[in-house]
Amino acid sequence: MYRPAFRPSTGVPLVLAASLIAGAFLSRFLTENAHFGWSVFSLWLASAALVALLGLSAALLWRTVVRHALGRDPLLADALCLLPLLLLALYLFQREVDTLQASVLLLGSLSLVAILMVSRKVRKEWTDRALLTFIFFLPVAMYVKTLLPTVGEHDTFEFQVLAYRLGIAHPTGYPLYILLGKLFSFLPVGNVAYRLNLSSALFAAGATVLVYATIHLLTRHRAASALSALSFAFSYSFWSQAVVAEVYALNALLVASICYLLLRWSREATDDPRSCQAKPEARAAPVPARLLAPLGRRWALLVTASFVCGLSLTHHRTMLLLLPAVVLYLLLSRRWTGVQVASAPILIGVFAVPLVGIHLYIPIRWWQMHGKIMPVSEFTDLILGTQFAGALRWDAWLRELDRLLMYIRVLLEQYPLPALALALFGLFWLFRPGRTSTAYPGWKEGVFLLTVFIAYVLFGLSYYVPDVSLFMIPSHLVIAIALGIGISASSQLAEKWLSSLDAVPLSTGSTIVGAATLSLAALLPMSLIWTNVPRVDRSDEYANYEWGRYVLQQALPSSAVILADSEKIAPLYYLQKVEGVRADTEAEVFPDEQSNREEVERRLAEGRPVFLARFLPGLETRYHLRSLGPLVEVSTHMLTEVPVEITSSDWSFGGEVLLQGYRLDSTHVSATDTVRLTLYWEATERIAQNYDVRLRLVGPSGRVWHQTRGRPPVNGLYPTAAWRAGEIVPDFHELYLEGKVPPGRYALQVGLFAPFRQEGLAEVNTAEEYVAIAEVSISYADQWSPTIDHPMRASFDNRIMLLGYDLPSTAYPGAEIPLTLYWQRIGHVPVDYDVAIELWGSGSKLLRSSVEQPLFGEYTPSRWREGEVLADAHLVRIPPTASGLLHLRIAMQNPATKHALPVVDGWPARQQWSATLSEIRVEGLPESTSSADYSPANFEGKILLLGHEIHNVQVRKGGSLELDLTWQALAPVHEDYTVFVHLLDEYDRIWGQEDIQPVYGTRPTSQWREGETVVDPHTVWTDGNAPLGLYRVQVGLYLLRTMERLHVLDPSGNPIGDKVIIGLMEIVP
Fold first, then answer.
1. Are residues 23 and 94 in the same domain?
2. 268-289 burial by CB neighbour count: b if 16+ within 10 A, else e?
3. pLDDT value at position 87?
4. Are strands 810-811 and 915-922 parallel, antiparallel or unpaired?
5. Do residues 322 and 474 touch, judged by C-beta distance below 8 A?
6. Residue 787's CB: how many other CB atoms inside 10 A?
7. Which of 68, 100, 121 is the last residue of a domain?
8. Whole-angstrom distance between the N-terminal and C-terminal Cα of the chain?
9. Chosen domain end from 121, 148, 171
10. Could you tell me if residue 570 is inside a domain?
11. CA 460, CA 473: separation in Å to the nearest integer?
12. pLDDT value at position 43?
């Protein structure tokens, strides 16, 4: 049979390019993700061979398959199915290791290839169904993957409890959410908290589908609609609410429903203008018949929209912001004129039925719970949320520029700048000149979307609450719709331009634009996934739930009352009310310290045992305090006997304090677990000075592996100077290991020290400041995946892999900076290698070098388990004369021969003798942004208080002090610290305070970039009973989970306090 000779085609080069890029990506992917034996592909030669083999094989296979199937060489249109593989090149040109980004790019590009190939073979209706299924289940999968598995905090735990118990939530009541949540609580999966969290995931996925349907309705462009909807699904604020039991996902679902129904109603009228006119016979019919006559498809849409509007107002009151846009759109459409006036009661009725019916749940349930009728004023205050009226300041965006800046930052957290520009283009596209007034979509749809957007943005700018970004989620939804229009419009313009070129056939141009649009636009949702997963992932957050179970397992007396803070109340209340754990006890939360003190006094007067799960100072002068696990018992009686079940001891510190014994929960713990210990102190006499309790774990060689900061006994609430002679004081402590202590046996030591001093109270018999009270065995932590600031893959002779390191990017001359290396054994390790650390300056000048044993020689490399990840801490001293850019090199060498192991660092790479870490910029300490006599305060080398500005030094009684704090992140911060600002009198009494995360709670410290400067405004309200006079303004940072404050360091790195006095203010008449 005759076969034509081979002729080059336009398809083969694209197939070859895509195959080569895919081969190169696979080489790097195997090196970084399956490095047990695959690190050879990081070398230039091996990588090039793999790339060439895969690339040429794929190109030849593609050509053979196409020639066999079509009887010709591949054309460009055939090869365009592989265009998404070019996206893999993005990862090839970056040096940083990001396995999540690589995985998303790989799975995403392969999915796009499959979509392009299948869409050419499958009928359109099947494609649409498959696409809808994909758009629903992809977000569901990602949400479930990152879902909070147990009880949440703040409003989340409230909804988890109240939905299960059919309670009444805080204003505005949220009856719709409570009733739907009750239905989800019956699901046979996980615990009740998980089921309620899952409801948000499904609501959010449903909203995503409706956003897709809305964009597709406006554009008829499937790729633009799908990718814009997925961009909204994976935007930061929306995703963060799809993994917890909160109201915002359902709110977005209702907003999307109304937008879709209205736009669909208008589209129906555009497609069939006659459908808006009532039939003549309907006009002559009796009134009841006339009421039913209009119920065609368009009327069904409008009636459904009216019903959903009424339903939505039983959920979230911000749905009122949508109503002006709805009314305006109906007026502009003028398609309501065919509706007879007699039919209006249908719309009013379907609007009122869910609005009234579901709201009736509140007074009915109130009567069932309280046995009396709910007062009308309380009902209206609840559903209208009148208590929040003071937080709403409609002119705030005009008076305060920082609100606008905050919104811009919030907006850029959702979508990158190019996406916002494309959305703006999409909005302009609706208003472009030359379109007829009846065109769809047109300027009327643009006015509708713009009105919705402005309403929600203005509300967010004017509403002073920490989580204001969540109230603006509907505006992010509108941006996604405009983004879809912008992508579709850009695709139309590109296709029109290509069609004007004679060299490009019309069908080929359309295929090129379709494949290019799909590939480029897909980068947005993919980039949002790899950016936001680390920020929204709550899947491993079991700590609060486990803490709550641990607390309620303590020997609490029946009818005990636990006063908790806003974070610790969540697991206690949930476990008591939902899971029935120690339901005979009661957990409460109050807003301020004075209310808690009054509750302590009231409950003790009732004869109820009172325990604290919060910080409440000032009780030590009136009550006796002691630990019961993490709780603090408040008692009017002194404890004088030691429990018999403890391990006894007789250590005497300075002849003043006896350690009578201890109780250690377990002597065997995992490296990621917590060591829990209760010490039993006795004051032999009245103690004049306050001492902090410090604990540490010490290895066999004397290396201190873990040491607590030190705090007063009994969770910092019962200083030693308050103890009575002969009093027994149980004192609970926790040591969070966090994977930083390697397997082995350690001595648990305890000591008493003056606050922020290195001199301790010596034990009488040993004259040592620390005494070893027990031995703790720490075992290997399975599947420990630490958060590494600088991931890398440096393979030392295929024996040991350096997975990455933590290292500050800036330092000052003479400083000691911490370096943590993360090792993993990947092969046979016959020798206990040493780590060589070299500090190099400009011009390849060696400034400093040292050779140290990994893990201080207490857990040597030959004993490491294969696959085990270990954190190896070192200190790097910067020379006093150093400046500019420095860099570190890490090598592993045989201590006997001094020969270094060959290392392959990065991809592609050549074999070297050391791995190079990131640069360190050495410069002087940042200058203060305040007056010249203020020096920046260093909080544990993590955060610097650069300066402050007090705007009104004189404040009237009950007035507010306005000030700005300027912070700088010295290193990556992995915890969310709370800022406290206290106004202290001469006796250190607090007469005004604010405790909140930075920038109104919108800039948590875990999201600060290293070196970033953050201006943090505060408003501190003074007590109306505060005496006139001068007050000190005190500032600091603490972790709410542990109530531990960050220490302030002096230039030598020694702790000197846990707060800073930034100035004086005066309270005047």
1. yes
2. bbbeeeeebebeeebeeeeeee
3. 93
4. parallel
5. yes
6. 10
7. 121
8. 107
9. 121
10. no
11. 10
12. 63
Tell me the C-alpha distance between 391 and 407, whole Å: 17
Q: Is residue 824 part of a domain?
A: yes
Residues 184 and 318 in one domain: yes
Query: Would 607 be classed as within a structural domain?
Result: no
Torsion of CA 720, 726, 730, 736, to 10 degrees: 40
Q: What per-residue confidence (pLDDT) applies to 810?
A: 85
Of 1032, 1006, 854, residue with least CA distance to 942: 1006
Q: What is the pLDDT of residue 287?
A: 42
Amino acid 1025: pLDDT = 86
Return the number of other C-beta atoms located less than 10 Å from residue 64's C-beta. 11
* Pair type for strands 937-939 and 1048-1049: antiparallel
Pair of tokens at residue 770: 């620390």
Split the chain (1069 residues) into runs of 10 and give each run's mean pLDDT. 44 79 84 65 65 71 63 62 90 89 94 83 78 94 96 92 93 93 94 96 97 94 93 96 96 96 82 46 41 62 90 91 91 62 76 92 90 88 81 74 84 94 94 70 90 93 84 95 94 81 65 84 95 93 93 94 93 95 93 90 94 92 94 94 88 91 93 93 89 94 91 93 93 92 94 88 88 93 85 90 91 88 92 94 86 93 91 92 90 92 84 89 72 78 90 89 91 89 89 88 87 90 89 92 86 85 90
Give the pairing of strands 770-779 and 810-811.
unpaired
Closest by CA position to 715, among listed 572, 619, 641 = 619
Burial label, 736 (beta-carbon count in 10 A; 0-12, 13-18, 19+): middle
Q: What is the CATH number of the domain that holds 904?
A: 2.70.50.60
Residue 91: its pLDDT value, please?
A: 92
Bond before 139 cis per omega within 30 degrees: no
In 3-state terms, what secondary structure has residue 847? strand
Cα–Cα distance, 754 to 689 (Å, whole number)? 8
Same domain, 876 and 892: yes
- H, E, C per residue of 728-753: EEEEEEEEECCCCCCCEEEEEEEEEE
- What is the number of structural domains in the chain? 5
> 12 by DSSP, 3-state: which?
helix
Neighbours of 968 (CB within 10 A): 19
Please give the pLDDT value at position 282.
Answer: 41
Residues 836 and 768 in one domain: no
Secondary element (H or E) of residue 1048: strand 1048-1049
Q: Which of 832, 611, 811 is CA-nearest to residue 715?
A: 611
Domain identity same for 58 and 41: yes
Helices (H) and strands (E) in the chain, counts: 29, 37
Q: Pairing mode, if any, of strands 647-653 and 624-628? A: unpaired
Do 104 and 167 fall into the same domain? no
- Indicate the DSSP class of residue 10: S
- DSSP strand pairing (954-956 vs 1060-1068): parallel
Q: Which residue in 156, 177, 316 sits closest to 243, CA to CA?
A: 156
Same domain, 743 and 797: no
CA dihedral sign, ordered 1035, 1036, 1040, 1045 = negative
The rounded Cα 634 to chain-centroid distance in angstroms is 36
Q: Which helix (H) or strand (E) holds 707?
A: strand 704-707
Predicted local distance difference test score (pLDDT) of residue 285 = 40
Same domain, 905 and 1034: no
Q: Of 837, 834, 843, 799, whose CA–CA distance to 818 is shortest?
A: 837
Quote the CA–CA distance of 472 and 494 in Å, as a whole number: 33
Give Cα separations from 72 to 4, 60, 602 (angstroms): 9, 14, 90
Q: Is 288 within the bounds of a domain?
A: no
E strand map for 754-844: 770-779, 790-796, 800-806, 810-811, 816-825, 834-841
Relative to beta strand 610-613, strand 561-564 is parallel
Q: Domain containing 749: what range?
A: 642-784
Structure tokens at 306: 């009216």
Other C-beta atoms within 10 Å of 882: how many?
21
